[in-house]
Amino acid sequence: MARVVGSVVATQKDPSLVGKKLMIVQQINSDQQPIRFEQVAADTVNAGIGDNVLIVRGAGARRADKERDENQTRDVNDCTIVGIIDRFDK
Predict the structure, then answer these.
(1) Name one GO cellular component term (predicted).
(2) Average pLDDT over residues 82-90
(3) How many helices, marked H, and strands, marked E, lie in the chain?
(4) pLDDT tens digit string along 59-74?
């Protein structure tokens, strides 16, 4: 889980990132307190700054973008936003 804290604009980037919205996310715990570090995530759900989101990393992040060309074998994405959290129930 993470909170979107900003966005990144990069005009020069790897071709596998062209057309992807890049957001800065801060990982959070279930009490919505920041943990770990900020990182950049590709956004597949149109999240906005301040949204709490679900993120996936590694191979799951590379497979999360259904708009991706199936013939594209190289994808440098390692973190993807795959959902917007509506609420936390504990």
Answers:
(1) carboxysome
(2) 94
(3) 1, 5
(4) 767 676 655 555 555 6
pTM over 0.90, yes/no: no
Is there a contact between 8 and 23 (Cβ–Cβ < 8 Å)? yes
CATH fold for domain 2-66: OB fold (Dihydrolipoamide Acetyltransferase, E2P) (2.40.50)
Name the residue ranges covered by the structural domains of the chain: 2-66
Q: Cα–Cα distances in Å, from 78 out to 31, 54, 72, 86, 90?
A: 25, 14, 15, 24, 29
How, if at all, do strands 21-28 and 79-84 pair?
Answer: unpaired
DSSP state of 16: G
